[in-house]
Amino acid sequence: MANKLIIRESDDAESLHNLLKDALTKEQRLIESSISRIQNELNALEIKYGMTTDQFIEQYSKGKTSDSLDFVDWSGLYHLYQKLLRKHVQIQDLQIVR
């Protein structure tokens, strides 16, 4: 179910609608760019350590890895990646209604 952003009828409702639509489009592009960059970083760590991010997160959350800087970064990147994916879906599901 999509969330709705309702714009009340006014003299500048059309320009406000366009402004919001453009802002959301730009935000989506920024999020998509960030997701792509983080995916590349996650892939590099997967290659370096020979395990998938899901495998790493499972081990890391159980305390079965060291607290090396790479592993702390990897965990942080994973959580940021998940947050950005949720944000992407939220914006994608948003409807602007006039």
Condensed summary:
The protein has 98 residues and is mainly alpha-helical. Helix content is 72%, strand content 6%. The chain has a two-stranded parallel sheet.
Report on this structure.
It contains three helices and two strands; from the N terminus they run E-H-H-H-E. It is mainly α. The protein has a two-stranded parallel ribbon with strand order 1-2. The two termini are 18 Å apart.
Write the layout of secondary structure elements.
Elements: E1 4-6, H1 13-49, H2 53-61, H3 69-93, E2 95-97
Parallel strand pairs: 1-2
Distance between the termini: 18 Å
Uncertain spans: none
Radius of gyration, rounded?
19 Å
Tell me the major beta sheet.
2 strands, parallel
Strand order in space, largest sheet: 1-2
Helix and strand composition category = mainly alpha
Give me the number of helical elements. Answer: 3
How many beta-strand elements? 2
Helical coverage, percent range = over 70%
Query: Could you state the order of secondary-structure elements as H and E?
Result: EHHHE
Shape, per Cα inertia axes: elongated
Distinctive features:
single chain, 98 residues, mainly alpha, two-stranded parallel sheet, 3 helices, 72% helix
